[in-house]
Structure formats: C-alpha cells, structure tokens
C-alpha cells in the first residue's frame, strides 16, 4: 500500500477519534463546504461544459472519478431543497437564496446535458430528454432509467419545499422531457415510425430494453404527472397490467428473495424509491419492509431516505426513532465518508448503494447531508 494512502488512513482514524466533539449540525457545514469545493466540478457558470457535475470519489492521488452524475444531481437537488426549507424556517434568508441559486444552476446543468447529448452522435443538438451524464467525458454514458430514479426523487423534494414559480416550471419541463425520452420513436420494418417504451440513442441503438421498462413505466408516468400537475400517462402505461407490474405487493414478493444479490439489489432500490413516489400508502409499507430487509445484509441506514421522505411527503410515521438516525450521523467522520472505514460510512453512498465499498478513496458525502436534513425535518418539525 502506498505511503500516501497509509498516511491518509491514519488521518481518518485520528479524525474519527475526535468526531464526537463535533455536533452533527457543525459536521453538516463541513460536509457542505467539502462537497462544494472538492466534489463539484467548476461552479462559475452552469452553461459551461463540464460544470456543476458531482464527483463520486477522489483517490489518494487526488484523481476525481465520476460515472452517475445525473443520479447524484437528483440527490443534490434533494439536499438543496431540504436545506432551503430549513433555512427559510429559521429565517436564514441569505442562505435560502443561495440554495435557490444553486437549484437554478443544477436545473440549467440538466438542460445542458440534455442539449449536448446528440452532438456525440454527430447530430444536431436537441432539448428532448436524451442526456449525456458528463458533457466533458464523451464515454461517460447516456440515458438510463436508474439516472431518472434519483432525478425524479430530487424533483419531488424540490416541489415539496420550493414555491418559486420559475424554478417549478423549469423542473416540470425537464420532468416531461425525461419521461418522453423513455418512450422512443421506433422505425418498424414497413418503414412506419411509432413510439414504444424503450430508451434509444440518436442512432437507434437500444440503451434500455422494453422489458426493463415493464415494471416501472406506470410509476414513471404517475410520478411525472404529479410533478407536472398534468396527465402524462403515455400509451401502454395506465392499464391493469402496468399497474400490477408496478405494484408494491408484487415487487415485495419478488425482491424479498433477491435482495442479497448485488446484481438485483440496485434494481430493488429503484423499485423502492419509485414505489414510494407513485403509491403513497402502499409505497410507504413497501419501502419500510425493504429497508428492514436491506439492513440485515447492509449497514444501518440503507434506503432510510425513502421511508423518511415518505414521512415528509405523506405524513407517515418514521420507521425508527430519532436516536437511531442521529447515531448514524454521529458515526460519520469529520473528514467525510471514505474507503476502509469500520462503520456505515465506508461506501459511495450509504443510503442508496452501500454495497459499493471497494472504491479506494474519499466519497462525496451527499448521503450524510440528505439524511441530516430529513432527520431534522421529520423529528424537529413534524412533532410540533
């Protein structure tokens, strides 16, 4: 092991030892500064190529790695929206306005990634919902429904807490485009063009097969309709079969037996967060069940943002008590989540993918920030 990495681990251990002397609110501010200065790419201008993209981890050489930028932008929007709410409630108006400015920047970034995507295929730029994940790295990946899981989650929290009409309208326009990008124009053998459930690149290559969309198309349409205050149920999405395939009962039976397998558990996360947003009552029961199962195989806190968000969005009761969540937050080292830690904070994201714990480096900490804000809102506001 390189000496630099050994030194870094020693620093982490020492910082962990003194972490108890730093309150979780103070730690939040440290994490926020750390994320915005180290784990966001250039932040001067959201219209600039490569700007405002979250970094997943930084290795011991200081090299930055990305891969799921749009996925993380959804979580970041949730952090900003909940932070905006807390700042507004506590009359921190300057900070609240900064939150709104950052939200605007992230929405502009999503537009930029959308506009840029066709250019990588030699096509004319279009604002149509087909996006590239990183417009400064051509091979970073494009549309996939898992990127939209978290984007819609961020939008849901944004709509809950932000009332700025221009921001809401901008979010709604992106929601409609992202939904339509999963219902692509397909040219049949007879030359006729029709639209079908699948994600295609501009050259017609299938990026997401129709069978992969089968279990989620109703949920996507329901969520997008709620976000946009409009009926956005595309053909083939609002029938008994689609509702059944998206139902929490069916998903619960299927994923209860596959949660131990990493190849399935990520899909379980997607189904859980979509179900929570699409089926308020059943979704809460399902997310609570999945959270309990997940914590048998993964750290405390896995998927906990889903049930906590259900408490906020639909007035449900929290699955665990406040001490459970604050204990997790207190365990987070002041230096931030990182590879090799001997507690919950040793993965790319504790809340959504704790099984990704083999990346050697420091992680962006959005999981801590989101959990912190959700706990504050659920336990310090809803009890009043």
The structure class reads: mainly alpha
The percent range for helix content is 55-70%
Poorly predicted parts: 3-14
Rounded to the nearest angstrom, the distance between the terminal CA atoms is 52 Å
| Quantity of strands, as a count | 7
User: What fraction of the residues are assigned to beta strands by DSSP?
Assistant: 5-15%
In one word, what is the shape? globular
Query: Mean of residue pLDDT?
Result: 89
Radius of gyration: 20 Å
User: Going across the major beta sheet, what is the strand order?
Assistant: 2-1-7
The largest pleated sheet is described as: 3 strands, antiparallel
List the total number of helices. 15
Quaternary state reads single chain
Query: H/E element string?
Result: HHEEHHHHEEEEHHHHHHHHEH
What is the total domain count? 1
Which properties best describe this structure?
7 strands, 55% helix, two-stranded antiparallel ribbon, 5% strand, mainly alpha, 384 residues, disordered N terminus, 15 helices
Task: Write a structural description.
The protein has 384 residues and is mainly alpha-helical. It has one domain (3-240, 300-380). Helices cover 55% and strands 5% of the residues. The chain has helices at residues 3-18, 24-38, 69-89, 93-116, 145-161, 165-181, 210-213, 217-228, 240-246, 248-255, 262-278, 280-297, 304-314, 322-331, 366-380; strands spanning 57-58, 64-65, 183-187, 193-197, 199-200, 206-208, 362-363. Strands 2-1-7 form a three-stranded antiparallel beta sheet, with no helix packed on it. Strand 3 and strand 4 form a beta hairpin. Helix 3 packs parallel to helix 15, helix 5 packs antiparallel against helix 6 and helix 5 packs parallel to helix 11. The protein is globular and about 70 Å long. The N and C termini lie far apart (52 Å).
């Amino acid at each position: 092991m390189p000496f630099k990495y050994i030194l870094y681990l020693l620093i982490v251990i020492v910082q962990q030892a003194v972490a108890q002397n730093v309150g979780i609110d103070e730690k939040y501010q440290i994490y926020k500064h750390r994320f915005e200065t180290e784990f966001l790419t250039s932040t001067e201008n959201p219209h600039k190529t490569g700007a405002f993209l979250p970094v997943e981890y930084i290795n011991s050489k200081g090299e930055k790695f990305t891969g799921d930028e749009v996925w993380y932008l959804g979580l970041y929007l949730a952090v900003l929206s909940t932070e905006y709410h807390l700042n507004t409630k506590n009359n921190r108006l300057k900070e609240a306005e900064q939150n709104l400015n950052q939200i605007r920047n992230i929405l502009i970034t999503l537009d930029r990634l959308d506009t840029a995507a066709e250019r990588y295929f030699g096509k004319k730029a279009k604002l149509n919902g087909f996006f590239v994940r990183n417009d400064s790295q051509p091979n970073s990946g494009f549309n996939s429904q898992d990127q939209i899981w978290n984007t819609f989650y961020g939008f849901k929290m944004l709509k809950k807490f932000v009332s700025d009409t221009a921001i809401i309208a901008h979010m709604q326009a992106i929601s409609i485009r992202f939904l339509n990008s999963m219902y692509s124009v397909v040219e049949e053998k007879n030359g006729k063009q029709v639209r079908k459930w699948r994600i295609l690149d501009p050259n017609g290559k299938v990026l997401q097969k129709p069978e992969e969309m089968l279990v989620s198309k109703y949920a996507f349409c329901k969520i997008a309709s709620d976000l946009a205050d409009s009926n956005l149920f595309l053909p083939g999405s609002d029938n008994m079969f689609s509702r059944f395939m998206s139902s929490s009962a069916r998903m619960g039976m299927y994923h209860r037996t596959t949660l131990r397998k990493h190849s399935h558990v990520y899909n379980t996360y997607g189904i859980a967060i979509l179900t929570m947003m699409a089926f308020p009552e059943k979704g809460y029961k399902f997310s609570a069940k999945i959270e309990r199962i997940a914590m048998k195989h993964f750290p405390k806190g896995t998927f906990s943002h889903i049930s906590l968000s259900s408490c906020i969005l639909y007035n449900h009761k929290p699955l665990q008590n406040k001490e459970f969540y604050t204990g997790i937050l207190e365990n987070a080292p002041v230096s931030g989540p990182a590879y090799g830690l001997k507690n919950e904070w040793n993965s790319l994201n504790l809340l959504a993918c704790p099984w990704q714990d083999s990346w050697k480096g420091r992680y962006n900490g959005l999981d801590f920030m989101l959990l912190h804000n959700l706990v504050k809102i659920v336990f310090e506001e809803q009890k009043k």
